[in-house]
Design brief:
The protein contains ten helices and seven strands. The chain has 276 residues and is an alpha/beta fold.
């Protein structure tokens, strides 16, 4: 496994915190009336245009920019019947474009994404929405119930695909797998859907990328096999067990022995470990 060990980014003390600066607040209120999944005809038309542009322009650029390689696509075909009934995918969050890489790698599936609400309120918020972003409301229990109902309907009734970054935030080119929050497993256990682990690992860039384009690393995306909730366990233990197993699989695919990963699988106000 190649570890970039970069000191370029100001990784926060807590492993789930963001370090990106939000440049704009568009004043959107994420309440019970907000359309967490916009099903209007005008929005779906714009979304279709964006998907066309993604396939024709953005995905090829993403592959070149990230030096992206994808491994494990055969698992999409192998488990097609299961995935077609609804699934939650989980990955480490290591680059501004890694969700674009996920979208490209799991085609023809069209995922939705649980997104930090501030990202949707930022200047790029409309684009985040058009690629499937669903904002997570904060400090509003009524809105949270509405959002959860929307996500449940997506998984249970629409048999949709939902992508979640269980680490809670993006840390660019960070190699260790940070602790996972239980949200993905909570939704999976509640909806009786599997979790599909996806992992990003790094490759050392070649001379041109390293010295001319100053690229820190190139990315490989690994697609695993679905993990199912253990129905023999009580619900809380079921969520915990699924979170731990998902974290272990992401570690393995990223080239890390889960027993040697510097973080425990479960988030509990976990602090950053300065390992270099």
């Amino acid at each position: 496994m190649f570890d970039p060990k970069t000191k370029k980014y100001p990784y926060p003390e807590q492993t789930d915190k963001h370090y990106l600066k939000i440049k704009m607040d568009r004043g959107i209120v994420f309440d019970t009336k907000y359309p967490y999944i916009d099903r209007s005809r005008s929005f779906r038309f714009k979304q279709a245009i964006v998907r066309l542009l993604l396939n024709v322009i953005v995905f090829p650029v993403c592959k070149i920019r990230l030096g992206l390689k994808t491994e494990g696509r055969q698992n999409l075909q192998k488990h097609r019947d299961v995935l077609n009934e609804g699934v939650i995918s989980v990955s480490n969050h290591v680059h501004m474009w890694d969700y674009i890489a996920v979208m490209r790698s799991i085609r023809p599936y069209k995922p939705y994404l649980l997104s930090w609400a501030a990202n949707v309120n930022d200047k790029d918020g409309p684009l985040v929405r058009l690629v499937g972003g669903i904002p997570i409301p904060e400090s509003n229990m009524a809105a949270t119930k509405t959002y959860l109902k929307t996500v449940r309907d997506l998984l249970k009734n629409d048999h949709g695909w939902l992508h979640i970054y269980s680490e809670g935030s993006m840390w660019e080119f960070y190699a260790p797998i940070r602790p996972f929050k239980r949200g993905a497993s909570f939704l999976a256990c509640e909806a009786d859907k599997p979790v599909l682990p996806i992992a990003f690992s790094y490759r050392e860039p070649g001379r041109i990328r390293k010295h001319i384009f100053r690229q820190i690393a190139t990315l490989t995306l690994h697609i695993g096999e679905p993990l199912f909730p253990d129905k023999d366990l009580p619900i809380k233990e079921r969520e915990k067990d699924l979170t731990i197993r998902t974290h272990e699989e992401v570690c393995k695919m990223a080239g890390i022995d889960p027993k040697k990963n510097i973080y425990t699988p479960l988030f509990d106000n976990t602090k950053r470990v300065d390992y270099y």
